[in-house]
Amino acid sequence: MEDVRIEGTPKTPAILLIGGTGNLEISGRSIPENSVEFYTKVLAWLDIYSAKPASKTIMDVKLEYFNTSSSKCLLDVFKKLETLQKKGFEVQIRWFYEEDDEDMLEAGEDYDSIIDLKFDMCVMEI
């Protein structure tokens, strides 16, 4: 399985998906013109990864901003990870936010209440 590394742009997040270690990361801004198209590669990779995942998967979410269409795509990502957990694998989401950014903290808490995964709220070091 190939790892995925996508460089971030002013409108799209950086993506790092390392299958062997189970370390996944999304960081930056997520306001792409077409969120579904952008996240298709991530969702397809997760489908392949789910066939032979690491014993523990940790996803770091370090977004400074995301739009509504990206929020739906993030939910799809979390649902795939939730399915992985239901198969008996350990999955952890670390949701990073800046200390004074209540909106991002609240967004993470909203996902935590929707998805049956362990979300750790982490203050981002600046």
Strand content: 25-35%
What is the CATH homology-level superfamily? STAS domain
Calculate the mean pLDDT score and round it.
Answer: 96
CATH architecture: 2-Layer Sandwich
Shape: globular
What number of structural domains do the residues give?
Answer: 1
Q: Unreliable runs, pLDDT <50, ≥5 residues?
A: none
Order of helices and strands: EEEHEHEHE
Q: Class in CATH?
A: Alpha Beta
Radius of gyration: 14 Å
H/I helix tally: 3
Helix proportion range: 25-40%
Structural class: alpha/beta
Using DSSP, what is the number of strands?
6
Termini gap: 33 Å
Task: Going across the biggest sheet, name each strand in turn.
Answer: 1-2-3-4-5-6
CATH topology: Transcription Regulator spoIIAA
* Main β-sheet description: 6 strands, mixed
In short:
The protein is an alpha/beta fold and 126 residues long.
Fold and architecture overview:
This protein has about 130 residues and is α/β, with parallel strands linked by helices. It has one domain (about 5-125): 2-Layer Sandwich (Transcription Regulator spoIIAA). Helices cover about 40% and strands about 35% of the residues. The chain contains 3 helices and 6 strands. The chain has helices at about 35-50, 70-85, 100-115, and strands at about 5, 15-20, 25-30, 55-65, 90-95, 120-125. Strands 1-2-3-4-5-6 form a 6-stranded mixed sheet, with helices on one face. β5 (about 90-95), α3 (about 100-115) and β6 form a beta-alpha-beta unit. α1 packs parallel to α2. The longest helix is centred in the middle third of the chain and has 19 residues, at about 70-85. The radius of gyration is 14 Å and the shape is globular. The model has no long low-confidence stretch (mean pLDDT about 95).
